[in-house]
Write a structure and sequence with these properties.
78% helix; single chain; 222 residues
Length: 222
């Protein structure tokens, strides 16, 4: 109900109670609900920050640049607070109960993602701190994903987000291309072994990896 009524703060609170009260890892359906609730909790703040930044950079609104900067800072703090909330829930109540490598990858990737989202609007020491944390958790997730099939949707989603992290935050397009290319090649080699459900989940991520890789290689002149 909270999801359908777009009451995402309520949704996250309800899900937090579910994961806290569970003695075992939650089901994949609840994990997916958790992911949707978390993403929607911060989506308006990410979008608002980018909109204010675009206005700030428009010469037509130069006289309001200081107001825009202050407003961006306000939105950034709200985003950081919500990202911290997500990271704490996953670190304290989900990750310790992860029953298999797939669940570990899901949770470790999620923590990496929310440090990355924090980094999108951070600066100075805070930017350095959250970028380092994002890198640490993406790497942990990559190590946990070693046992998963190359076309596993969590493994492919991790490669997608980790490569974006290198491209956007590390400004390292070569490393981003390497991560995306390795994931694509691994999935292509095993594509005939996928069943229909695996194929449906994997192919949409494969398409995004291909689009990013083509764009990044074009920018590199390769």
């Amino acid at each position: 109900v909270a999801d359908q009524s777009e009451r995402y703060e309520d949704m996250v609170q309800f899900l937090k109670e579910i994961v806290k009260d569970s003695s075992e890892d939650i089901s994949s359906d609840v994990r997916n609900l958790l992911s949707v609730g978390f993403k929607n909790l911060i989506s308006s703040q990410r979008s608002a920050w980018k909109t204010v930044q675009a206005i700030e950079q428009n010469k037509k609104y130069a006289e309001y640049s200081s107001d825009c900067a202050a407003y961006k800072e306000k939105i950034s703090k709200e985003l950081e607070t919500n990202c911290k909330k997500v990271i704490t829930i996953v670190n304290e109540h989900c990750l310790p109960k992860a029953g298999d490598d797939e669940a570990k990858v899901f949770y470790l990737k999620m923590i990496g993602d929310y440090y990355r989202y924090t980094a999108e609007t951070a600066s100075g020491d805070k930017l350095a701190e959250v970028t380092e944390n994002a890198s640490k958790y993406y790497q942990k997730a990559t190590e946990a994903a070693a046992s998963l099939k190359p076309y596993n949707s969590n493994k492919l989603g991790l490669a997608l987000n980790y490569s974006v992290f290198y491209y956007e935050l590390k400004n390292d397009s070569a490393k981003a291309c390497t991560i995306a290319e390795e994931a694509l090649n691994g999935a292509r080699d095993e594509i005939d072994n996928m069943d229909n459900e695996e194929a449906r989940d994997a192919l949409s991520i494969i398409e995004l990896l291909k689009e990013n890789l083509d764009l990044w290689k074009e920018e590199e002149g390769g």
